[in-house]
Write a structure and sequence with these properties.
Elements (H helix, E strand, L loop, with lengths): L9 H62 L5 H20 L5 H22 L6 H76 L1
Keywords: Membrane, Transmembrane, Transmembrane helix
Protein name: Chemoreceptor-like protein with four helix bundle sensory module
C-alpha cells in the first residue's frame, strides 16, 4: 500500500473513491430494476397465465355442458342452453381483460366468433351443427392452453436469467465495497503513520 503514503495526491485518491462509490450506486440501481422486472414477470405468470388457464378450463366445462344438453334434451332445454352461453360470454369478457399475445388474440377472436354463432343458432332452435361448432371451439381452447404453457415457460426462463444477473451483480457490489473498505483503511493507516513521523521529526528538532 505504498500509494497510501502519497497523500499529497488527494485529488486522484478522491476521484478513485468517487469512481468506486459511483459503481456501487449504479450497480444498486440496476439491481432495483432487475427486482422490478422479476416482480412483473411473476405477476404476469399469475394474472395472465395461471388465471387465464382457469378461464380456459371453465369455458371447456361450459361447452361440454352445452354438448350434453344437445345430446340429451331436457325440459326447458332452451333456457338451460341460454344460461350456459351467458356464462361463456361472462368468462370471455374476463379473458379479454388479461394481456394477450398476438397468437392468443387470433385464436380467442375465432373462439368468440364460434360461441357467438353457436348462441345465435341455438336461439333459433337450430341444433344440427351445434356439436361441430363446439368441437371447433374446444380446439381453439386447446391451442390457447398450449400458448399459456409456452408463455409461462418463457416468463420463468426470463425470471431465472434476471435472478442470475442479480446474483452476479450482488457479488460485484460486495467486491466493490470490500475494495472501498481496504482503500479507506489504507488511507487511515497511512495518515496515522505520517502523523507519527511528523511528531518524531518535531521531537528531534527540539
Amino acid at each position: 500500500m505504498k500509494w497510501t503514503y502519497s497523500i499529497p495526491r488527494k485529488t486522484s485518491t478522491a476521484l478513485l473513491l468517487l469512481g468506486v462509490l459511483t459503481l456501487v450506486l449504479v450497480n444498486n440501481l440496476r439491481e432495483r430494476s432487475n427486482s422490478k422486472e422479476i416482480k412483473t414477470a411473476f405477476e404476469s405468470i399469475y394474472e395472465d397465465r395461471l388465471v387465464v388457464e382457469s378461464y380456459i378450463l371453465r369455458l371447456s366445462e361450459e361447452l361440454h355442458q352445452v354438448q350434453e344438453l344437445l345430446e340429451r334434451p331436457i325440459t326447458h332445454q332452451k333456457e338451460a342452453l341460454a344460461e350456459r352461453l351467458s356464462e361463456i360470454e361472462q368468462i370471455n369478457l374476463l379473458y379479454l381483460n388479461t394481456e394477450l399475445t398476438k397468437a392468443e388474440e387470433t385464436h380467442f377472436e375465432h373462439f368468440e366468433q364460434l360461441t357467438w354463432e353457436l348462441g345465435k343458432a341455438l336461439e333459433k332452435g337450430k341444433f344440427e351443427n351445434g356439436n361441430a361448432t363446439i368441437e371447433d371451439a374446444l380446439r381453439d381452447l386447446r391451442l390457447l392452453s398450449e400458448i399459456q404453457i409456452s408463455e409461462g415457460h418463457s416468463l420463468m426462463t426470463q425470471s431465472q436469467q434476471l435472478f442470475k444477473a442479480s446474483s452476479i451483480s450482488s457479488q460485484f457490489e460486495i467486491c466493490l465495497v470490500v475494495i472501498l473498505g481496504l482503500m479507506v483503511q489504507g488511507i487511515l493507516f497511512a495518515s496515522k503513520t505520517l502523523q507519527k513521523r511528523n511528531n518524531f521529526s518535531t521531537e528531534n528538532l527540539n
